[in-house]
Amino acid sequence: MKSIALREIKSFFGSPIGYLVIAIFLLLNGLFLWVFDGEYNILQSGFADLSPFFTLSPWILIFLIPAVTMRSFSDEKKQGTIELLLTKPLSIWQIVNGKFLGAFLLIVIAIIPTLIYVYVVSSLGMDSNIDLGSTMGSYFGLLFLVAAYTSIGIFTSTLSENQIVSFILSVFLCFLFYYGFEGMTTLVKSQSDVISRIGMDYHFKSMARGVIDTRDVLYFLSVAFLFLSLTVINLKSLKS
User: Mean pLDDT for the chain?
Assistant: First the structure.
């Protein structure tokens, strides 16, 4: 698994993909948070907190993570190396986890530089009144959200050898699980609370309050495990 993860990270940084992902993530967040006028501009909000960043980031990642994962297995299928990969002395779970870990770490590397925002916003506030509890909870929740998005992207990359198809399917599923169920609550108001709990947005916002509930952690782990399991099932069907 470690060898697969390292190979993925090397492939990301051996081409412009890794650098582009990090640059685009930081550039988009930087522009919306500090330059562009609007509701996400921290300097114009009048509050010393990073809530605009944690509101914006999940939407940027909905497109960015599928762009990273779309080639994970679809590229292997297109080049005809998927059979060679599956014959390696590794279990399918180890291969899938290696691909997952490589993509996950790339996004984590892109997120790490944003920790400077905590210092900047803290310096802007009176008496450093930033809520560190909710901020760290939000970062913690963002990591779980990244894990869920990444597992979805890895899964969709096994559905087609066309990377664009994998990208579109991944964006759709990430959107559905992040906001789709929340949007459905306006249509089915009688079961709105139950439906909203199925979506990632509900659990991400819960963690952003600064209190890490095991139910939220289990939710994200369950989503990641579900899609990684589906990935393994798809690969087993190719191997048989």
Answer: 87
